[in-house]
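2024-03-11 09:14:02 INFO receiving multi-entity request
2024-03-11 09:14:02 INFO entity count = two
2024-03-11 09:14:03 INFO echoing inputs for audit
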Amino acid sequence: MKQTATNSAALQGAGPDKNGSLSANIAKFRELGLLLFIVILSVGVQLRNPSFLTWENISDIATNTAILSILAVGMMLVIITRGIDLSIGATLALSGMVSALTVSQYPDLHPLLAVGVGVGVGLVCGVVIGFLVSWINILPIIATLGMMNVFRGLTFETSGGKWVSAHQMPESFKAIATGSVFGINNLILIAIAIYIVAYYFVSHTRTGRRVYAIGSNPESADISGIRTGRILWLVYSIMGGLSGLAGVLWVSKFASAQGDTASGYELSVIAACVLGGVSIAGGVGKLSGVILGAVLLGILNNALPMINVSPFWQNFIQGSIILIAVLVNALVKRGIDRNNLMRRKI
Amino acid sequence: MEQRLIANKKEFTLKGFFLQWEWLLVLLLIGVFVMNSNLSEYFLDSANLRDATMGFLDKAFIVLPMVFIILLGDIDISVASIVALSSVIMADLYNHGVPMELAVVICLAVGTICGWVNGLLIVKYKELSAVIVTLATMIIYRGIAYILLEDQASGKFPSWFKFLGWGYVGGIPFILIAFVFFAVVFWILLHKTTFGRMVYAMGNNTTAARFSGIQVDKIKIIVFTLAGLMSAIAALFLTSRMGSTRPNIAMGYELEVIAMVVLGGVSTAGGKGRMIGAILAVFLIGFLRYGLGLVNVSAQMLLIIMGVLLIVSVAIPQLKQRFAYVRRK
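2024-03-11 09:21:47 INFO inference complete, emitting structure
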């Protein structure tokens, strides 16, 4: 795809259709552009508030972004298959709540087991959604909208509407998110590990490539012998498992599990994905873009309060980011398609 | 692939007549009535029934255009945010000295514009599904409401405004009369006009519809604009009923509205479903919630029930189709 865009841009030169090559170029330089934007944003915020680029704040941003970027990996896979998952905020809350309740009952539980409980709950949620989407053929938006409410309601029901707060959690559990290995926070290490596994999965395994194949063209994927149902199921299960993991990390980091934990967080995750160039039309998306999208959002979330932007602007800004990013993605895709068509004529 | 046609008028058979989805809804509605009257002896009181409808009819106004949107195979999850935005703007203007009559008109205009923007974006950027466009505008519209009102509530409307949500005309709630009026209008629009036929045609096959000369873009924009307008009307009734407004008003309405439409037998694949089913579903869900409220079912439990209801009502037709397919094989 990239190669085509470059060739045709070269062939075209300063042709009349400048727009096409420009938008195709955005695709080529998206990562660079995002990086540049991150740098400009950081410098701008730093000028307004000198405490922004301190070591403490940067590590704060990094740990905050870690959870977002873990979820973004799963969401990328879901969006690549032309789906969407609105339930992850609720899945996160449910699995965080269940694992918090577990450790408050059994304070001697090994933290890894607590993580296992959370991931297990998330996985079950994901399997259910995957079943609805792949086997019963319910539109992802409707299935996840419905299950979002079910999971959210279950979170309140399991806790009886109460919070699990810091003093009910053993130190070992809170250490999951606050501890560090070699001076690097656990959250960041976990995120890096997940990105390495995910990179291997999407670019070096057959199943990973099949995810892209389904997104590009479900019918031909089906005809060429890919079991699309199973892959879809797998993708939503991965999403659920990652949400479960994120739930434990979230609860451990903030040392509190509430009924409305992470409500609306799915929108940030979707924003990170579309910013990173994952196409809603399916089949397109790179991990490098997604991680930059997540970092950019993490920085924005951290920077806006620092430069005295009212928190009430946050919704509007996030929505605008999603809208602009998907519009740009659409224009980019048009440019690439046009360039491909031109190449064919020559 | 199942072959789908827009059938001409079907021949009337008794079996076909009674094997309709709508009869199932009627049965369910009777079931809910029986359940409710067992729970409370006051339920079947005519005054009680009349007042119960006032509690849930506000969102029903959005159900009517949502039928059109889902018939097109699209979805609009921004409706609740349009309710919030138009309501907040109306209240804010009124409290800054704009006469209430003008504020109401502006409220309707805001809703219409929001819907029009949705439609325009969806039509201009065909690569984007309605899902993602309305997802983004959902956040943006509510975001603007938050910017305007922050965490405040705004109210103190003139007394005549209360009439919308609380008033009676000849012993019948005004909101019920308004709903019946709009339901009839939308029913005629869907089933008795060429516009409605075109919506069905587009829902079955947009490309074919376009090639047969239907202005698909125009129709799509009109449908989404209608959704915006009706959301604003819902905002009027809801605000009047609540007496004040906040930016988080009507949170989660999109779920209920979509649940009512799909429970009413409108297929999310587009092109299949009828207005009467959705209207029945409005009353079914409304009275179900009312009854569950009578036995003190918590709000969280209601969330779960609504979610399950949505999933089940989408799953049933899908499963039916699946088993029909297996049997044919």
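2024-03-11 09:21:48 INFO post-check: The longest strand of chain A covers residues 180-181.
2024-03-11 09:21:48 INFO post-check: DSSP finds 15 helices and two strands in chain A.
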